[in-house]
Amino acid sequence: FGIATDESFVITTTNRKEITEDNFSELVQDGVTLYLLQSVDQMLLLATKERIDFLPHYDTLVKSGMYEYYASEGQNPLPFALAELIDNSLSATSRNTGIRSIQIQLLFDDSQGKPAVAVIDNGRGMTSKQLNNWAVYRLSKFTRQGDFESDHSGYVRPLPVPRSLNSDISYFGVGGKQAVFFVGQSARMISKPADSQDVHELVLSKEDF
């Protein structure tokens, strides 16, 4: 890499975890993306890209007809989809010490691209690994086990209070990805972990699939 012998450097994961002799076998796996930096908290001068490859979970097939089921029973499935997206923000802001801010924006300005639904919150944010895990259609966040790093890691399910911001409103378990593709053609997740200076962005589109 052309590093001078008197120059110090570190090798980290995209979550800024430094690779050491003790954690090498745990963090360095096939296909993992690593950073070669002067320090762990060094600011990145350019955006980096990481392609995510995964096999769809069997629930993709087993549960993919949920919205059709609700619609066929005379219920509008759109509230279920919006509830799933808002529930992600409720989870992310559940441990905020200050104000919990959750905004839902309907964007119809053609100059900004196609119409979109934007859900914005001031939650704890997600790492690149957590965004990767979010991309994989899996079980409910309350039934997952053995995840290396869950997309809701550290989340504690609150006591059920009807119609409360502390409730889990996505109890149908239809999944964020299914909700996104019910509403639109693509998903863009932009997140900055509370303890990191890095901003992570994930794009999923029907065209790519």
Summarize the structure.
The protein is built from six helices and six strands.
Describe it.
This protein is α+β, with helices and mostly antiparallel strands and 209 residues long. It has two domains: 1-54, no CATH class; 58-147 and 158-205, Heat Shock Protein 90. It is built from six helices and six strands; from the N terminus they run E-H-E-H-H-H-E-E-H-H-E-E. The protein has helices at 24-27, 59-62, 66-72, 78-92, 128-134, 176-183; strands at residues 10-13, 34-37, 102-107, 116-121, 186-191, 200-205. A hairpin with an 8-residue loop joins strand 5 and strand 6 (200-205). Helix 4 packs across helix 6 (176-183). The radius of gyration is 19 Å and the shape is elongated. The chain starts with 9 loop residues before the first strand and ends with a strand. 17% of the residues are buried. The model is unreliable at 139-153 (pLDDT under 50). Pfam families: HATPase_c_3 (PF13589). One of its GO terms (biological process) is double-strand break repair.
